[in-house]
From TrEMBL, chains A, B:
Alphabetically ordered keywords of this record: FAD, Flavoprotein, Oxidoreductase, Redox-active center
Domain Pyridine nucleotide-disulphide oxidoreductase dimerisation: 318-417
Entry's family note: Belongs to the class-III pyridine nucleotide-disulfide oxidoreductase family.
Gene3D superfamilies the UniProt entry points to: FAD/NAD(P)-binding domain
Species this chain originates from: Geodermatophilus siccatus
A molecular-function term among this protein's GO annotations: oxidoreductase activity
Highest taxon of source: Bacteria
The FAD/NAD(P)-binding domain, residue ranges: 4-282
CC cofactor: FAD
Protein name, as recorded: NADPH-dependent 2,4-dienoyl-CoA reductase, sulfur reductase
Pfam families reported for this sequence: Pyr_redox_2 (PF07992), Pyr_redox_dim (PF02852)
InterPro entries listed in its UniProt record: FAD-bd_OxRdtase, FAD/NAD-bd_sf, FAD/NAD-binding_dom, FAD/NAD-linked_Rdtase_dimer_sf, Pyr_nucl-diS_OxRdtase_dimer
UniProt keyword Flavoprotein present: yes
Length: 435, 435
């Protein structure tokens, strides 16, 4: 929809006809809001819908919901749809999105196993809760896993989070992951780390009864997949579009397919690149999807545009603990060949004496030789999380720890100590540089 | 104290003796916390004291409180103190701070007129409230003025803010200042703009009775000076130190005096420079004072360091309205010769559907030709204010609106819309660039 809107802004309806095919019932909804709808923080499903097909129609963008693109013929320039039509195109944007990653274990197709992807998934999970589900197992400890664990606990279910890894939030360093793990335990969420799932056990009625690992069996009547999102590329692959090393559609910086000039791909189905390393990555996040769609639409509309890469910035919360990360964590930075320096500091979100001051831990990863900032991680109480944007901006701009340490950030007692914790971390990192 | 601590970190006590002369009873206290102490948000005066003389003594820094430096003899390398001693020095740091600006009007020396500077001022104002003061007039609508108006109102006083300017917060653009003015009015604070004070009227007992302007007379039993802080340079000027165009001690980027090699100056008594324009400015804020002290102490301790300039970043709140600014406002940018482009957007602090989402207005000032970001202003509900740090970092790094618009900021429904309002503002600014 971002691509359609961007193209329409640049070229009017007489000049460019735009048709959107969507297999589901909605376009432009907040998948990231589903955990909060499940948790009753957001009361009404319709609040998660940003724009309706009718609103797009008013801008001369034809949206066909309930219409699946079944097959692409890229040489002929046609799409065959589930409604039996064949539509021609001059330019095609593949925006088939992602799909929840599913472990290859018995029982995964049982009706009590849910991804967190479409609004219908949210409705199904809410239905299971309303029908009396009492125990849930969440597979995976990424953002969706954490958010769903909290949501289901808030609805009164007992929740176990089963992790294949040792710790939740694998894109944070170990010491930060440990804090998150502890906070989850303190909330009463049962975390079971280091246990790849082996089977979903079902009863005679086909309903989910337990999740089994090598270490134990966790009774439940609801299983939620929080293992991340992979690219949905079935349609693209079948049509012969080049698929990159990450399994997503390979595109250039204008989101144009590497294999077909008339075809663009954007969002969770497309491969992108890391801003710092240049490496091909697949990061399924709405922010990138929106921007990539806008780039594709702008280019199709005739205006130069290019996607500037990702740092992998992300933010979530579990209970009162806010968790942000950006850039490279220590392991990623080492793998990319940097001489890694990591510094962690403890501070407070407000002046220490100000009511509501909460603890905050900031970790900075930098390159030991140049001082260049490579990554940041923030874990702390209310007000901590959004500070990750300051680090993301510093890293985006290529600042060194020392350059950033000198920066002129705001101070007022209700908002931060005299030196904001992100600057304290940078100062420690730059002082280490200077010996 | 920052200078002393930095020098001590680099050079031990046998190598460098450090003596601090302080005329008042405390060092290292949070002047910015005084309004919150007056407002009973912070309960205990001692919470505002960051470090005591005893703590410095433990690090071999001798602090003499109640000891005023009366006279400097820079050629002889001596300081004469109020206790009748003459101390010698090899290096001197002048850190005499600022003083509340005072209009030259009758009655200003009445006992009911208070600056907001030292902890004793806070104690005096608290005393006046405890003694039954019922109406206060605050002169000036900068940070201190706003914070004191709110604090006194919270303590049950009727509060009038008398402004010489048309609007509060003169370092924000008009449209932003109008929002603040309205919020103050909505809180029940009486704002009287465009009225330089003409006199403080006192009764037969010498107590304050009213503040008079050309437009009216505002009864009160308490007057608070919120007109800003000027540099306190009496001692430096008498000693022959060169005073800059802003009225503060002129220093180079190592905080060394321009006129005397052995003398440094840091904090509110010293002149500094604007990061973007290079112009001499005087900005009395604790963040700069801390950093400048550290630079002076590092250089004296033998380590290279330099102050990197100020953007004038600042943050406050009045009621639920958070107010941040950084860099150049439109008027400053025009005066500096830029071809100014200013764009203002409205957004929400969280996803629009998420409980607690509040309105936020972001204004970006950029250079029309190059796209370089020059300034940012943020006004909005809880969670709005600290976003000014993201803009401050982008401006610090020299990003254009377009470069910043592509940046990878965090998104999660409890924390922001998919596009953070600061990025939306940058996108609008860069789209305007592109025509």
């Amino acid at each position: 929809m971002s691509a359609a809107a961007a193209a329409r802004r640049l070229r009017g309806a007489p000049d460019l006809a735009i048709t959107v095919l969507e297999q589901g019932p909605e376009v432009s909804y907040s998948a990231c809001g589903i955990p909060y709808w499940v948790g009753d923080v957001v009361g009404d499903r319709d609040e998660l819908i940003a724009r309706t097909p009718r609103e797009f129609a008013a801008r001369d963008i034809e949206v066909r919901t309930g219409t699946r693109a079944e097959e692409l013929d890229l040489d002929a320039g046609t799409v065959r749809t589930s409604t039996g039509e064949t539509l021609g195109f001059d330019r095609l944007v593949v925006a088939t999105g992602g799909r929840p990653l599913r472990p290859d274990v018995p029982g995964l197709d049982a009706p009590g196993v849910h991804g967190v992807h479409r609004l219908a998934d949210g409705a199904d999970i809410r239905g299971a809760v309303a029908a009396g589900a009492r125990r849930a197992v969440v597979l995976g400890g990424g953002y969706i896993g954490l958010e769903m664990a909290e949501a289901l606990q808030a609805r009164g279910l007992g929740v176990t989070v089963v992790l294949a890894d040792d710790l939740p939030m694998s894109l944070l360093d170990r010491d930060m992951g440990e804090r998150i793990c502890k906070a989850m335990g303190d909330m009463g969420i049962d975390v079971q780390p280091g246990q790849p799932v082996r089977a979903i056990e079902t009863g005679a009625d086909g309903a989910v009864r337990a999740v089994t690992t090598d270490a134990g069996s966790y009774p439940c009547d609801l299983v939620v997949l929080g293992l991340g999102m992979g690219p949905e590329v079935g349609l693209a692959r079948a049509a012969g579009l080049r698929i990159g090393e990450t399994g997503a559609v390979e595109v250039d910086r204008t989101q144009r397919s590497r294999s077909h000039e008339a075809v663009y791909a954007a969002g969770d189905c497309s491969q992108t690149f890391h801003r710092l390393t240049g490496e091909a990555v697949h990061v399924a996040l709405g922010t990138h999807a929106n921007k990539q769609g806008r780039v594709a639409g702008s280019v199709i509309g005739g205006q130069a545009a290019r996607f500037a890469g990702v740092l992998g910035t992300a933010l979530t919360r579990v209970g009162d603990l806010e968790i942000g990360r950006t850039g490279l964590c220590s392991g990623q930075a080492e793998a990319a060949g940097y001489d890694v320096r990591a510094e962690t500091i403890e501070g407070t979100t407000r002046a220490g004496y100000f009511p509501g001051a909460a603890g905050i831990t900031v970790k900075l990863v930098s390159d030991s030789g140049s001082g260049q900032l490579l990554g940041g991680q923030v874990v702390g109480g209310p007000g901590a999380g959004k500070r990750i944007d300051v680090l993301a901006t510093a890293i985006w701009a290529g600042l060194t720890a020392e350059e950033f340490a000198g920066s002129d950030l705001s101070y007022a007692p209700p908002f931060s100590p005299v030196y904001d914790p992100v600057v304290v971390a940078a100062r420690v990192a730059s002082r280490v540089e200077q010996g």
